[in-house]
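Chapter summary example: a protein plus OZZ.
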Amino acid sequence: MLKAVQKNATKGDPQSVISAIDHYCRNKEWAMNVGDDKGLILDSVLTEVNPSAALELGTYCGYSTVRIARLLSPGSKLITVEFNPAFAAVARQIIAYAGLQDKVTLVEGPSGDLIPKLRERFGVKSFDFVFLDHWKDRYLLDTKLLEDCGLLQKGTVLLADNVICPGTPEYLKYVRSSPRYESRYYKSNLEYTKLEDGLEKSVFLG
Ligand SMILES: O=C(NC/C=C/[C@H]1O[C@@H](n2ccc(=O)cc2)[C@H](O)[C@@H]1O)c1cc([N+](=O)[O-])cc(O)c1O
Ligand SMILES: [Mg+2]
């Protein structure tokens, strides 16, 4: 994937990095990026929220990191959490190739350990936007952790990938039944396939 970016994308041009990855994953080797179909929904929710402090759980190779960071207003920041050092190393290079390294802080480690440290380490008061795309059995745990750490504020938008495929049933049940969230489903398809998948957008009501 990284080679495809270096070969086919233009340095400093995030859109060309996104297109190079999508082309590679559609034609050469599938990979678990949010992809271009769900990516358009991510773009529109992001543009609507226009966050100054954004969090991504699950960097993987940095595809959605680039999609998010390219739409941030000047001075806004994205913190992205990655557990696997090999993925983090690739993501750093892809983020840098897109020229977005100044907007992105990639933190390596398990989300459960890092979330409670984000305030003291990065001076984050709270997040306006959270993109959940890491281990599906961590979505609910980490959402509750973000609540408990006071990192969500009234109006914070959580956007969760893969709520249908592979699926995050407990998370969905929670955000759809809790009085603290206003939740809605954006139907789409699993990246680079015709299978159904979708994004769940949940607004924290405080
Ligand atoms: O399993 C999926 N995603 C798991 C992602 C996990 C990523 O999150 C990181 N992480 C970061 C911090 C942690 O604490 C834990 C993991 C892991 O190191 C990995 O980089 C998935 C699967 C399919 N699929 O079709 O099968 C489609 C998708 O869109 C998916 O997202
Ligand atoms: Mg995903």
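Key point: The beta strands are 53-57, 77-82, 104-108, 127-132, 152-160, 181-189, 196-204.
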